[in-house]
Amino acid sequence: MADSDDEYIGSSGDERGKRASNSRKQKGAGDAGKERWEEIQRSWDNVVEGADGSISAAVVGLLEQNKRKRLLKDTTPLQRGIIRHLVLVLDLSIAMEEKDFRPTRFLLQLSHACDFIKEYFEQNPISQLCVIGMCDGLAKRISDMSGNPVEHISAIRKLRANGVEPKGSPSLQNALDMARGCLWNSPTHGTKEVLIVFGALHTCDPGDIHMTIKAMVQDKIEVRIVGLAAQVAVCSELVKKTNSGSLAGYGVAMDEKHFRDLLMANTTPPPTRQANTNASTLLTMGFPSRFSNPGHPTLCACHSNPITSGYMCPRCMARVCALPTSCPACSLTLILSTHLARSYHHLFPLANWVEVARHDVKKRSPKLCFSCERPFPKLAALPPSSTVAATGDLATKRTSNAPVPGVKAVPSISSTGRYACLDCGKWFCVDCDIFCHEEVYNCPGCEADPEGKEKRQREKEALAAKETAQTGQSSAAQGDAMEIDG
Amino acid sequence: MDRVDATEHFAQHAQGDLPSLLVLIIDINPIPWTTNPLSTALPFNTALSNLLLFLNAHLAFSHTNKVAVIAAAAPRGGGAKILYPAAELPTDTKGRPQSRPPQPAPQPGEPNKYRPFKDLEEGVLAGLGKVLASVNEEDDGTDRTVVSETRIAGALTLALAYINRLAGAGADNLGQTLTKGTGTTEAGTMQSRILVVSVAGDVASEYVPVMNCVFAAQKKHIPIDVCKVAGNSVFLQQAADATGGVYMKLDAPNGFLQYLMMAYLPDPAARQHLVLPTQANVDFRAACFCHKKVVDVGYVCSICLSIFCTVPPDNICMTCQTKLAHTVGGMVVRKKKKKKAGTATGSGAGTPTVGTPRP
Lengths: 486, 359
What we know:
The structure holds two protein chains of two kinds. Chain A is α/β, with parallel strands linked by helices. Chain A is built from 14 helices and 17 strands. Chain A has helices at 15-28, 56-69, 105-123, 149-161, 172-183, 209-218, 233-242, 256-264, 337-342, 344-347, 391-399, 430-440, 444-448, 450-479, and strands spanning 84-91, 128-135, 138-146, 191-198, 222-227, 250-252, 281-286, 289-292, 298-299, 306-307, 309-312, 319-320, 325-326, 333-334, 354-355, 419-420, 427-428. Chain A has a six-stranded mixed beta sheet with strand order 3-2-1-4-5-6, sandwiched between helices. Chain A has a three-stranded mixed beta sheet with strand order 7-14-13, with no helix packed on it. In chain A, strand 16 (419-420) and strand 17 (427-428) form a beta hairpin. In chain A, helix 3 (105-123) packs antiparallel against helix 4, helix 3 packs parallel to helix 8 and helix 5 (172-183) runs parallel beside helix 6. Chain B is an alpha/beta fold. Among the domains of chain B are: 20-87 and 115-135 and 149-171 and 190-272, 3-Layer(aba) Sandwich (Rossmann fold), CATH 3.40.50; 285-329, no CATH class. Chain B has eleven helices and eleven strands. Chain B is globular, with a radius of gyration of 26 Å. At the A-B interface, helix 2, helix 6, helix 7, helix 8 and strand 7 of A face helix 6, helix 7, helix 8, strand 9 and strand 10 of B. Strand 7 of chain A pairs antiparallel with strand 9 (297-301) of chain B. Chain A: One of its GO terms (biological process) is regulation of transcription by RNA polymerase II. Chain A: Keywords: DNA damage, DNA repair, Metal-binding, Nucleus, Transcription, Transcription regulation, Zinc, Zinc-finger. Chain A: It comes from Ascobolus immersus RN42. Chain A: It holds the Pfam family C1_4.
């Protein structure tokens, strides 16, 4: 124990003090000598009075900014590990009794874990998950590796129903070792990940945790941690080493919502790192057909429950009651094509839309959101563009008509409340922007008006051709030697 | 007899409070509507009047119920368009709507018609007329050979965006919008559903967008009902199955109105008490990407999830060009991966293998 927890100083009672000092450590490097509590942001400083003395315009702008903040995803299509194997490690130690997250850290963790599991299987239908708890210096298996969300959620609910109380110290090393064991025989084509919720500020280990970290690196297991109290050195080292030097997977929650966001960020399949590449393989999968014979129930091969409708393995004709699963008789992976389709939006993300600049809004330009037909706000009713200086460079990008691939939209409010898709050129309101990027993953303009999109594509190409011709001509004029034959 | 008491009445009231939104997607592809078995059994104008009757019935249930109508067209036959309600144009400074088309003179013959019915009828007919006119007018030299498949993804996306707008409209004031987290737009303010009246087949290239719509609808608990008047559509079958909607292929299209009234009129709250038509056999078979052959045991690329019916030549995935190892045959072959943009960050250094010195 003594050799691994160099961060642990006093009793867990002084966590508050440690948190403050740690957060200072994090921030301190950037702004010379200024304490965190000295930088005060007054919310009323952001509000600019409109011409008529009201602040409604500014409020609308702030609301939009708030909504838009969530959309700053990188939309470069990356290769992602679609087939995931993840071990979720929950902290069941005494530190989780703290009430700084309402109602307690422990209860909030359990409810967020259930939401996480639901969302995880929604986003990654052909992936597997397993839940481990850390308490009393031990790692305890809560649910086994499986692809069925119901099993995990009921196991977590059972924890609560059985009156399990958080107690003892957590042991990172034991949890990591058990996680490694769980991931040991997972196939090479999938990712191996561990996600830890860590509420304590110390770990109580039987051996050298650095050896375990080394083993994790060798096994190509990526570890990500959501801290609840403060940053802990051994955690950041663990994350850094297992993620090829990137600390992006380690976050410390500031409040309940942030905690949830940090957890939910892990539902998106991780981009494949070169250092961590596993062999990609061709998987044999079965696409079963559904059978139903009402009135004549048969036993399913997976749970031995009587069922009247279910799916039949195409290879061995065993009957299973739910998909996706692997056939209990011949261990063929059984899925529906819809499960595969669910992952496609990770592979082909919808490109970000850009803000429409003020001077692009002309008299004849659209007055309604293309998809929901909500009228756009009038320019006069919007806050002056001085409050939104950041739109400038995007505006120039747009007017030059050159769609920059994977434009990273600067976090700014649109001065016009209009957002444009670069492919189809249609304009949308901020609500549709969020809805399309977070839930539908389709552009309504590109889907509803494919001809308009093609037309725009052609125009773009023509424009590009013209430009190159012009530059060619000008260079010809300068050189005065080149002849363009007609 | 003594079971008939007042409690039922109260229960009905409590459920009826939630307004119900019905988004109707009409397939206006001209080819199936004008080919013979359907054109004699159910001409388009009869179908349209039946649909209007059906929508009126929905509106008549409660004055808070709402209706939207969207047209879906064939590729190159005009895009998807919201027909009803007509877009509300922003008013100018004097409160006058900007460039509103001249209002049609009130019909003298029907002074007693219920106003919402009349608005709906006029709105849908006007919208449909406009769409058809625009398709006929527009002649920009594009190939207008109309095919017998219909693009449905655009209409579905529009329907979802419209539902999202109405569902979110209740929480429009400041406080609620601020606290509203990701994806928690209250669907509780309105019960929505989508009904697709489809006469044509699928456009194969639309698989991913349609499926995206289906999953979004599933997440928001919006059932997609499908009334298949003619033709066959695997995508819509899967859509109805995944979202818990009703899928029905009409055996006798001339009884269109009855089908609509019996199977599609009850809203989701009422449906749990009814026995509705179910699909016995949903087509879940996957077609392979290489030969478009329907397979039941196939090979799937672990990177891009493409489906193949046989091991592709040289073990190279045809979609993402990755060299794949086929694990059944023994050794896993290491491959040289294409370097992708973005992955380079943080991966260049690799992982240090030397442990940190112990204290």
